[in-house]
Design goal:
Elements lengths: L10 H6 L27 H4 L37 H7 L4 E2 L6 E8 L8 E9 L5 E8 L10 E4 L12 E10 L2 E17 L4 E17 L5 E5 L5 E11 L6 H6 L4 E2 L1 H4 L2 E8 L2 E8 L9 E8 L5 E4 L7 H4 L2 E8 L5 E16 L4 E13 L15 E10 L7
Parallel strand pairs: 1-10, 11-19
Antiparallel strand pairs: 2-3, 3-4, 4-6, 5-7, 6-7, 7-8, 8-9, 8-10, 12-13, 13-14, 14-16, 15-17, 16-17, 17-18, 18-19
Length: 403
């Protein structure tokens, strides 16, 4: 049984902003860095290529044609349970979970059996308290064979207290910082599964007592589970959970970008000015909740010529000399990791400041076409009808987040 690490989660992002698309860890192999949107929703095989994505927050996505895609409902951390602040401070979890916990940022993934890997179903949800403590809940199913029935009622006391060998696994990862976290697994209670399929999961946890465990990753990426004697405990009296894929606009499902990109959609997460190959590059992202099904969009504004002014944008095929001096590129990634690249073929880039320490200006009426995606070539993709429009984006590296 080969299961990779649950460790080194992107907890800092969950603590800083619960809507950040932090990568959960697939137990089949440990990614070296967080995915843009976890491997949520369906596998590529299940979805027929395009991933509908998970549902972190119902209602996210909007109408891409109106430019509202990706607009998020504000997430408000839960208040600290009355009288439970001391337990939360020491254990990073409440002593008793309210039934409305883990009702945001749900994700779901199905991994078909392949080679020495077993079929798995993984449900993941986040929670956070106003104290700054963040929690992640896993419900992971590992049937003995792909034909095993997954619905029914399961006594968690029958499961080994061992992450590497449990078949109906319930795990909570809780943290107060990216370097301080605790793991919990059940010693008793009931898992009820009413639906398990490639696209949906639903069920509940009843009277689940969980104890603190230590999960240690070995060199071969297997996990050793050790009960923490005298450690913390937590209890879930009753908690329902469910996931179904969100509706994604048809253009996004096909092209991985909204038809209309708005400034609001692109300015939540700014990397700012970097120097690259002797030029200047400003990078900004659209990073919606991973469960929204909306893509992670990374936009690059690049200048490889000194000086300010207004510059016409052209595709590299139409004007290679011009595109090499001023270009705007997009990398759009769906939650299954598939990517499309785009390049501006019309529109203007105005630079009002350009130096080692400052890059600012605006983009206006920029039209993007899909490219073949080869690095530094960006030729138009033959037969593609995918495109996107950015009507106006003012940018300044003064807005960049500090490292």
């Amino acid at each position: 049984m080969k299961r990779s690490a649950l460790l080194s989660l992107c907890v800092s992002a969950a603590l800083a902003a619960a809507s950040f698309a932090c990568g959960g860890k697939d137990k089949k192999e440990r990614p070296e860095e967080p995915d843009a949107g976890w491997d949520a929703g369906l596998t590529e095989e299940d979805a027929g290529g395009a991933d509908a994505g998970p549902s972190d927050d119902a209602g996210i996505g909007g109408d891409a044609g109106e430019g509202d895609a990706g607009e998020e409902e504000e997430f408000v951390p839960k208040p600290v349970p009355e009288g439970d602040g001391e337990h939360l401070s020491a254990c990073f979890v409440p002593s008793e979970w309210p039934s409305v916990s883990f009702d945001k940022f749900a994700k779901y993934k199905v991994t078909p059996a392949s080679g020495d890997e077993e079929t798995s179903y993984e449900y993941l949800a986040y929670d956070e308290y106003a104290s700054g403590h963040a929690q992640t809940l896993w419900v992971e199913l590992y049937p003995a064979d792909s034909m095993a029935s997954q619905t029914g009622t399961f006594d968690l006391a029958d499961e080994p207290l061992d992450y590497a060998s449990c078949t109906h696994c319930v795990v909570i990862d809780a943290a107060e910082s990216e370097t301080s976290e605790k793991f919990y697994m059940p010693v008793s209670g009931t898992l009820v599964l009413t639906e398990v399929s490639a696209q949906r999961i639903a069920g509940s946890l009843k009277n689940v007592a969980m104890t603190e465990v230590r999960l240690t990753e070995l060199a071969n990426h297997s996990i050793v589970t050790t009960k923490v004697e005298g450690g913390c405990t937590t209890h879930i009296a009753s908690m329902d959970f469910s996931y179904e894929p969100p509706e994604v606009p048809a253009h996004v499902a096909e092209c991985y970008v909204p038809e209309v990109l708005t400034a609001k959609y692109l300015t939540d997460y700014i990397y700012g000015l970097t120097t690259e190959g002797g030029g200047y590059c400003y990078e900004t992202m659209a990073l919606p909740d991973t469960g929204s099904g909306m893509p992670f969009v990374d936009l690059f504004i690049e200048a490889y010529e000194e000086g300010t002014g207004t510059f016409e944008l052209h595709s590299c095929q139409a004007a290679p000399d011009t595109c090499e001096k001023h270009s705007v590129l997009i990398e759009a990634t769906m939650s299954d990791g598939s990517m499309k690249t785009y390049m501006a073929d019309t529109g203007t880039m105005t630079l009002t400041a350009l130096s080692k320490n400052l890059m600012e200006g605006e983009l206006r009426n920029v039209h993007f076409i899909e490219t073949n995606g080869q690095k530094d070539i960006y030729t138009p993709k033959a037969g593609s009808s995918c495109s996107a429009v950015l009507e106006l984006l003012a940018f300044s590296s003064k807005d960049a987040e500090e490292d």
